[in-house]
Design goal:
Blueprint (H helix, E strand, L loop, with lengths): L4 E2 L11 E2 H5 L6 E4 L17 E6 L6 H11 L5 E6 L3 H10 L3 E4 L5 H9 L15 H6 L1
Parallel strand pairs: 2-3, 3-4, 4-5, 5-6
Antiparallel strand pairs: 1-6
Organism: Sphingomonas quercus
InterPro entries: UCP030820
Protein name: DUF934 domain-containing protein
Length: about 140
Amino acid sequence: MGDALRFRDDEPHEEPAVTLDSFLGQSNATAVRLESDEDARLLLPYLDRLALVEVAFPTFRDGRGYSAASILREAGYKGELRAQGDVLVDQIAHMRRCGFDSFAPEAPLDMAAVERALTRYPARYQPAADGTAPIWARRRG
């Protein structure tokens, strides 16, 4: 696995993430892993006790993890949301917009390229989970 990339001030969650089935069958886990074909809405009753949700990206072409992140953040999830798997530099900015704040790519990422990707477009037109005010809202004051 490549180097982890984090955008959080707290310490990384070290507890291994359990599968969704295991999580739903036990009461003490605080970290869960969602596979790309699993429904993030099943976690909504447990958001207050989850410290980490790791979302699998088995291939960069599989965008279901973006929806999972958006669902969790819009429902109020405040814990660490980690994208794990086939995460590419080109996707980091979009993943951040959906609410991912940590990344565990399979292959190392060029950190200079990540920085360029994150700063390429300083303004946004749509509201999103990252909390960045859209340009139209800033223009209105």
